[in-house]
Specification:
With 64 residues, the protein is mostly helical. The protein is built from 2 helices and no strands.
Length: 64
């Protein structure tokens, strides 16, 4: 997994964990949606690596 994607995953997981400690449901919803997006990018990167096609970061929120 590319280093920048790994960093995004770690940051997003930390954000979700912070939101779990809070009672703001909207913030939790937003952070879990971000985590789902990052998870899709991670899956895409893993698939591309497995198939030997490491391409640009695409998809919803790609490159953000």
């Amino acid at each position: 997994m590319p280093g920048d994607l790994r960093m995004r995953v770690e940051e997003t997981v930390a954000e979700v964990e912070r939101c779990l400690e809070d009672t703001n449901v909207d913030a939790l919803r937003t952070s879990t949606e971000r985590l789902a997006q990052v998870s899709r990018r991670m899956r895409t990167a893993a698939y591309a690596r497995r198939s030997g096609e490491a391409g640009p970061d695409t998809g919803p929120g790609g490159g953000a």
